[in-house]
Design goal:
The structure holds two protein chains of two kinds.
Chain A lengths: L1 E6 L3 H12 L5 E4 L15 E3 L8 E2 H12 L5 E3 L3 E5 L4 E6 L3 E12 L3 E3 L2 H4 L9 E3 H11 L6 E5 L3 H12 L3 E7 L8 H8 L6 E3 L1 E7 L6 E6 L12 E3 L3 E4 L3 E3 L2 H5 L4 E2 L4 E2 L12 E3 L10 H19 L8 E7 L3 E5 L2 E4 L5 E8 L6 E7 L4 E7 L8 E6 H4 L6 E7 L1
Parallel strand pairs in A: 1-2, 1-8, 2-5, 8-21, 10-17, 11-12, 11-17, 12-13, 22-29
Antiparallel strand pairs in A: 3-4, 6-7, 7-8, 9-18, 14-15, 15-16, 19-20, 22-24, 23-25, 25-28, 26-27, 26-29
Chain B lengths: L1 E4 L8 E5 L5 E3 L4 H10 L4 E2 L2 E7 L5 E6 L3 E2 L3 H9 L2 E3 L7 E3 L9 E3 L4
Parallel strand pairs in B: 5-8
Antiparallel strand pairs in B: 1-2, 2-3, 4-7, 5-6, 6-10, 9-10
Classes of the chains: A alpha/beta, B alpha+beta.
Chain lengths: 417, 114
């Protein structure tokens, strides 16, 4: 019997394992489907990781390496090259690999840390031929950084998510010509620093409110048509531009990978596509916790690691017998402009002195105030911001004393000055 | 006055650099921004991250980076240097792969064990 089985060995899995150890758990198992720990960090060879966690700027492999080193020579068990097939209500985890075959492993608690996957061409239905040369940005990143294949010479990138921006720079450095980065929204989906250091540094144009409306080519991509879009994302006739390219990279969003969670009847939030969680990262299934990109897509691995620490500590508390199930539940609702919150529920009275709430807006806000109100319209907390953009996750901290004054459920809204 | 986005951390502060006033930086929320803003207009530098070929490892590519920022105009020349490198496994994180890259004083180091 394990204390905790952690599903996924990326930043969330590694950091939650570390937290479980620090809380004194002895029997911790990480199940990872790849041949090594580290998850997507292994292919994120660029720097920018670790500024919060380690106070220095590391690359993805170095960030993962720090955690792997911390777990080395500890009691944490790792199963590599192993798939989890299902999770049962009694915390049995069914796994399979080529060495031990099929196994049913029992645990007192489970942490879901499966991460997310990329949206593909099929998900956004780009018209055109089915020529080779259309990759998700992360797939191209894997081919280039791990396997050493150059995926193309003349590239157009659709979407301005961080992976797409990082790949614009990466391909340019490796000798490709990146002709354009095309974003359907009137704002970028990536961090401002990546617009600067990945596009502007190399004079790569960013076309906002534009999208690819045609992909041409018989065997290999030969070119794409890019059109301006109106306020309803509809292409505007007469605005077409043609780019002669052999490669299209898609950086059009990430989807939390929750097949296991859904099969285990864990409640999923349709907005985040991740499990609905309480303030301690517990899901709707008692004793099953979740953290990282499987819950909601983060901008920074540092934030994933911090959230994972919370999940690991909560799992350890659960294993040591602490139960929260009979507490009162306060729901955090969102008003237009706010896309979602994590956690979605808070159990009161809080055990901590405050609760951290993460959220994303779904449009750009200038000078504004974030308002947390209760059902009687009382302001529980408010926070000023100079600007809030969808590309950056926001964090607010609601003190326990304020939360205890709230009547009924809470709402989070943003009011522009 | 030049406006810049700071690349020092994910926050991305909007900096203003006053060239006529000793490159004084405003809009930064930490010393990293002040330094970045002052340097960016005179001697922009970047940490270069890439890969080199590795023989006998789990994968064919070993991720590497410069251990300090190098002048931005040298990035492509530095990439050409990396293209000629082939290392043998095992390599430890932090091992020096190229010493004093292009005379910049920066070393290229491995960013993982392999």
């Amino acid at each position: 019997m394990y204390d905790v089985i952690i599903i996924g060995g990326g930043p969330a899995g590694l950091a939650s394992a570390k937290a479980c150890l620090d809380k004194g758990l002895e029997k911790v198992l990480i199940v990872e489907r790849d041949k090594e720990l580290g998850g997507i960090l292994n292919q994120c060879i660029h720097n920018g990781f670790g500024l919060h966690m380690f106070k220095e700027e590391l690359t993805g492999p170095e960030f993962a390496g720090r955690f792997i080193d911390m777990l080395r020579d500890t009691k944490v068990e790792v199963m590599l090259d192993t798939m989890v097939l299902s999770i049962e209500d009694d915390h049995t985890v069914h796994v399979i690999n080529t060495v031990n075959g099929y196994q049913c492993l029992k645990a007192k608690s489970i942490i879901l840390a499966m991460g997310c996957r990329e949206r593909t061409r099929g998900a956004i239905a780009i018209p055109g031929t089915r020529a080779a040369g259309v990759f998700t940005a992360g797939t191209a990143q894997r081919y280039m950084n791990i396997d050493g294949y150059m995926v193309g010479k003349r590239v157009v990138i659709l979407g301005s998510g961080d992976i797409g921006l990082i790949m614009a720079r990466r391909m340019t450095l490796e000798g490709a010509k990146v002709l354009a980065c095309v974003e359907i929204n009137p704002y970028s989906g990536g961090l401002a620093r990546n617009i600067k250091q990945c596009l502007e540094d190399f004079n790569i144009p960013l076309y906002l409110s534009h999208t690819i409306t045609d992909i041409r080519g018989e065997n290999r991509v030969e070119g794409v048509t890019v059109s301006k879009v109106d306020g309803h994302f509809q292409p505007i006739k007469g605005t077409e531009m043609y780019f002669d390219c052999d490669t299209v990279l898609l950086s059009v969003g990430l989807i939390p990978e929750n097949e296991l969670s859904k099969a285990a009847n864990i409640r999923i939030d349709p907005r985040t596509r991740g499990p609905v969680v309480y303030e301690n990262m517990e899901t709707s299934a008692e004793g099953i916790f979740a953290c990282g990109n499987v819950v909601h897509v983060h901008d920074l691995a540092d934030n994933v690691a911090l959230e994972a620490k919370k999940a690991g500590e909560s799992a350890a508390e659960y294993v040591s017998g602490l139960r929260r199930a009979d507490k009162k539940v306060v729901e955090i609702k969102t008003l237009p402009g706010v896309g979602y919150t994590v956690p979605q529920h808070v159990r009161v009275p809080l055990d901590n002195k405050f609760v951290e709430v993460f959220f994303r807006v779904n449009r750009v806000f200038g000078n504004s105030v974030i308002l947390v109100k209760d059902e009687k319209d009382n302001v529980i907390s408010q926070f000023k911001r100079e600007f809030i953009v969808p590309g950056s996750m926001e964090k607010i901290i609601i003190p326990k004393v304020m939360l205890e004054k709230a009547e009924g459920n809470l709402t989070v809204s943003v009011k522009e000055d | 006055m030049t406006e810049l986005i700071c690349i020092g951390c994910p926050k991305g502060c909007h900096l203003k650099v006053d060239e006529e006033n000793g490159y004084k930086v405003t809009g930064n929320s930490c010393p990293v921004g002040a330094e970045y803003g002052a340097n960016e207009l005179r001697n922009p530098t970047r940490v270069l991250t890439s890969t080199v070929r590795i023989v006998g490892g789990l994968h064919d590519c070993l991720p590497v980076r410069t251990n300090k920022p190098i002048p931005k105009p040298l990035l492509l020349e530095a990439m050409a240097q990396l293209r000629n490198i082939e290392v043998k496994s095992p390599v430890r994180m932090g091992d020096v792969i190229i010493e004093n890259l292009l005379g910049t004083g920066a070393d290229v180091i491995a960013t993982r064990n392999m």
